[in-house]
Here is the input.
Amino acid sequence: MISKDIKKLLLRSGVFIIPILLYTLILSKVDPFNYFSDNNILSQETEHQTARKLNSLLYNTIQFKNNPTPNIIIGDSRIKRLPTSEIEKITGDKYFILHSNAAKLNEIIDLFWLTDSLYCISKHNNLKNVIIGINFNLYNEYAYANRVHEVKKMIENPLMYVFNGNILEVTIKAITHHFSGISAPNVSRNIMLKRELKGKSFKDKKIWWEFNISTVAKNQYSRYKYPEGLMDRLQEVGAYCSVNNINLILLNVPHYKEYRQRVIDFNLTESERKFKNEIKNIGTVIDYDFSNSITNCRTCFTDPIHTNDSINLIIVKEIFNDSLVIGKKL
Amino acid sequence: MSFDSIQFLVFFPIVIALYFIIPFKKRWILLLIASYYFYMCWRVDYIILIMISTIIDYICSNQMSKINLKQKRKKWLIISLISNLGILFGFKYFNFFSENIQTLFNQYNIFYEVPFFNVLLPVGISFYTFQTLSYTIDVYNNKTPAQKHLGVFAVYVSFFPQLVAGPIERSNHLLPQFFKEHKFSYDRVKSGLQKMLWGFFKKLVIANNLAILVNGVYNNVDNYTGAALLVATIFFTFQIYCDFSGYSDIAIGTARVMSFELRENFKRPYFSKSIQEFWQRWHITLSSWFKDYLYIPLGGNRVVKWKWYYNIIITFLLSGLWHGAEWTFIIWGALHGTYLVFSITLNSPKKYLSEIIKKYSPKLNNIFDVTITFILVAFAWIFFRANNLDDALYVIKNMLTDLNEYNNMGMQFRGLGIYLSDIIKCVILIFFVIGYSLYERSDDVWKKLQSKPIWIRWSLYYLMLFGILFLAPHSTINNFIYFQF
Here is the structure.
């Protein structure tokens, strides 16, 4: 016989958890990252304007998990716009771009291992072609973040996905976008940029360009420490690829000459030379970050570190047709 | 098993349900199985250590109870002390002493390889050892009767809510509760769950968020300067409070759901007006243990002055050593001992200064005392948190330099993936816990809220629950700090 007190507890607990069950139900239907399935109620436009924009790392990783391909390009925003359609036209192979905004090299390595394991689980095979977007500005002990760990945890445990502040925020923004079409601003990034730009708009191309040369480059190069563990980890990736017949290419992405000058300004020329020397032993290295017709051309860039679409096309054509003109193999 | 694990989410309701279903006389069996299982989830073989302690203390105490003459009882007390402290020494302190002896030998060119013991420190060993020690000493002193029921005694030693990180219970408080029939009570369960909720909030939301910055800085101190070190130290001061008091609240709440009352371990310690008061409010069950079983037997303050100071310093040195076999903990203890000795010797000038400030405003005097105590405590935490002495000294040397370099600090934190918004979040959480403590000043917060409308109470429950679900950094593993002791 259940006592009155037990009944009261069960009833109140039942009522108490209703909002949590409701949230779980809504999330499973909205599912802006396609975690549970590809069939959510959102349009692709909404997903791109919310989930992909606010958490590109998680969005892209789940996309890869849902539709794994044996060919993958991993890196930060600088490889985001490499034209995969052109690659497919040249090679006949589908490539997936797994980019994460402001990804650090340690995260890119983490992503390599994560995608390889996801592909192995799904297709019982190893990846075939891996291109890693890299640059000296990532080769710094201080250039460190650890977001892939959280993504991995979320993929392993749905509770981590359901009860996550970022997922809640994106879900609310996705619902808002779905019903009103209002895009979700990245508030914390905008506040940070506004502070650093002293109130000026980062949408002004000239201001944004100058900001990159003066502040972003300074942040990246003024504090430099040789990343001891990173090279070991890269070598591990290289050895793994070589044993498992994975074609590994390290693409050293170009920076505009003013940005490159900052390496000299901060007395890091020798460190950069060491970096290029060391990555040669990992896999095929294709270098675009030296004085050449791309790095000397301002109009080839949307900002000092991001090449425009026509340059991306040239880079892709050069790499996949194996006819390097501007780039060079190290 | 840890309170903040998914396992516990399943374990806890099952144990509670079974506890109230099975007959009262068999409940100790359930509690014993649950407690041993709780411990074995961490490591199976170390349960043997708890069993050994239990059996030795059971035998010793029962033998003592048969002997009237205190002098004759002593040998059983000594057997208990040697075996319990021997296990503790072997697993916790042996390597520390070996390491230091080896360093000494090397310095004097003595070529001898001091043996090392390659073992993992058993979780909670200091807690349950001190709990059983207090029982045996109390039996020896005729303060508590020897427990005849081995099963119940085993539950007392291993009671899962407080097994791995306290509160350290006294036998005359906890043992009788196992013989009391507890009926299911909605109010008690609610009160226990409220306590647990606040404990989880403090640990998972506040302590774990602060830990990201603290661990990032303190695990690589030489990458940081000035303000970054200062912020990390202040954050740690609140992290350790929320971590440990959070654990204690969960432990007390868990026990309360089953109608057991454990002793309070914290009483708003950062509002203490002196170091002496701080130790009456911080980790109360440990400080009272040291007071009753070490400080007073040494003579306490009823001795000549130098002996009194000596008693204080020894007590705090051993309290530091209790926390960990590291010089940093010993210095932390010694610092607190020194603070106390100074506060005694400087009592007259302090009183004089207080009188002057009180003339202007008594409140100002309180604020002044609380602030000074807080600074002293926070300073000592540097040694507690630093990975080694060099790191601690680096922090002390550098924490007050470049304080104007806010941008530099921002850049240093960005390397940890921490942005201004994260710092603001942490500061708000710190103010939340301070606000809670202020509200708690006159009475227990939940008791006060009982008279408020249901929507206020439920809003607070949801605020905490959603905080736990959505603000806690679940992907980072942060064990309770006191698990290592």
Chain B has two domains: 6-181, 188-484. The radius of gyration of chain B is 24 Å. Residues 6-181 of chain B form one domain.
